[in-house]
Fold this sequence. Notes:
Elements: H1 2-9, E1 12-17, E2 21-25, E3 30-41, H2 55-60, E4 67-68, H3 72-80, E5 85-89, E6 106-115, E7 119-124, E8 128-132, E9 140-148, E10 168-169, H4 173-181, E11 186-190, H5 193-196, E12 207-213
Antiparallel strand pairs: 1-6, 2-5, 3-4, 3-6, 7-12, 8-11, 9-10, 9-12
Amino acid sequence: FAGYISQVLKNYTDHACDGEYVSLRCPHRTTISIQSSFYGRIVPSHQLCPSRYPHSYATLIKEDVACSVGTSLQKMLDECQDRRSCQFLVNSRLFGMDPCPGTGKYLLVWYKCRPNEYKSKVACEDDKLRLSCKKSMVIAIYSAIFGRTQGGSLECPYQNLGMPMIECQSATALQLMIKRCHGKRSCSIYASTYEFGDPCYPGIQKHLNVIYAC
């Protein structure tokens, strides 16, 4: 169980050079959740994905190290989002127009493994959040946010008292929820600055949003 959870909570990073296969894979009962993606080149080839051109040709052309495409994230979402695994050959044709012909490029992708069945619970500031699972099952925390997100929370309407609508989140919310609830059948915690600290300007209403699986 502990090994499974550490895999689920982990942020995965994978990369592949032009002409190589990229392969993403998640554990049983989880699916791929793409976080971010990059295709192009921002470091010289001696640091990552050496040039495949003959050395004499490589010295003739100036390598572009400020080269990227804007379609990389959408392509990764199309190919891999919500699947258990995915694999494809990396080349510029996948992403539309070649952003820098003559320069060898690479794909970088960051992803998490999301449980297939998960629950989401929200508590407004100073309310108690209670999580529980059925008999013989335990809580596996997937993510936790305490603060204010850009879109706010429908459960906790924002009363604008002249405060700027700014995003602010506790950096320790996930660790605290794991410590308090992970591996237990039930747990409770107050969505308060006493527990999580105050990541926002004074007076900004916050909420706690936890995603978990049993």
